Amino acid sequence: MGADKRGRGAFPRQFCVIGAASPWRAVALMFVAMSCIPAGDTASKLLTSEHGLSPVFVAWARFAVGTLAVLPFVPAGTARLFSDWRVWGRGALMASGIVSIQVALSMAPIASVFAAFFVGPIVSYALSALVLREAVTPLRTALMAAGFAGVLLVIRPGVDMTPGLGFAFLAGLFYGCFLTASRALSGLAPARSLLLTQLVAGTVLLSPGLLLTPGDIGWTEALLLLASGLFSMAGNLLLLLAYRIGTGSGLAPLVYFQLIAATTLGWAVFGDLPDALTWAGLALIIAAGVASARAGRSGFGRAGTVR
């Protein structure tokens, strides 16, 4: 009489939007998307740390590849957006963040870079409250503080802080500002149009990076540049698709899978394993992020870190 009519194989309700199979597809897409992003950064790290390419050039190539991939799918009338200085400001924040993280990847283990970068959603949470006057709660503010403590465990400000992690932290600051700008401009145009504007702005603003291009790029470097851009773009597109067929409250915690993927790739490709304090910081960031994603509609968990 009181039996669960969903059956044993039913999916948790918070993931469901359309169709019985959609929730499982959404989760699968999220896991793939959150693996693609660290895969793109792994290719970038190989380019900067082992093949000697400039981080600025690698960042420019990522924007250029992304522009070419997105261009066919952009709505008509997008070009008019480039007359708005706010679009260029938002693009400059993203470009600065990507350059900073490329520098970080050339110096530091990928898992530590990702952990430090996750200060971005915390910054966005604070700026959304201060600048956009969005509501905050004591619980989620406490979770922000816990997440920030996790970041501090990873970067260890002071004598133990490396330049690479400093650049990763800086990248997170830029990204937090970018997320806030994105929320402020969300009503300006469709998401695909805004995506193209940030890619084009990054390509244009970082074009001086072409002057740093080595003259002897071979097939290996070319393939890694392509992989860096395409993996990043695939992560973005799969994330958007996952949110179309699943719900934010159910999928947001899965954003933190990229920290696990980054740690796995760092070990498999570079032989890097985090030390005890970094493991503790990673665990605290993930726990605080997942809790915040489940506690609220926006903020640390929702913001994610898609690049």
Structure, explained:
The protein is mostly helical and 307 residues long. The chain has one domain (20-212, 224-303). Helix content is 69%, strand content 0%. It has 13 helices and no strands. It has helices at 22-49, 55-70, 85-107, 110-117, 119-130, 138-155, 163-184, 191-205, 219-245, 248-251, 257-270, 276-295, 300-303. Helix 1 (22-49) packs across helix 11 (257-270) and helix 6 packs antiparallel against helix 12. The longest helix has 28 residues, at 22-49. The protein is globular.
Per-chain topology:
Blueprint: H1 22-49, H2 55-70, H3 85-107, H4 110-117, H5 119-130, H6 138-155, H7 163-184, H8 191-205, H9 219-245, H10 248-251, H11 257-270, H12 276-295, H13 300-303
The helix-strand sequence is HHHHHHHHHHHHH
Helix content: 55-70%
Output the radius of gyration: 19 Å
Structural class: mainly alpha
Labels describing this entry:
307 residues; 13 helices; 0% strand; transmembrane helix
Brief overview:
By secondary structure, the protein is mostly helical. It contains 13 helices and no strands. Keywords: Membrane, Transmembrane, Transmembrane helix.
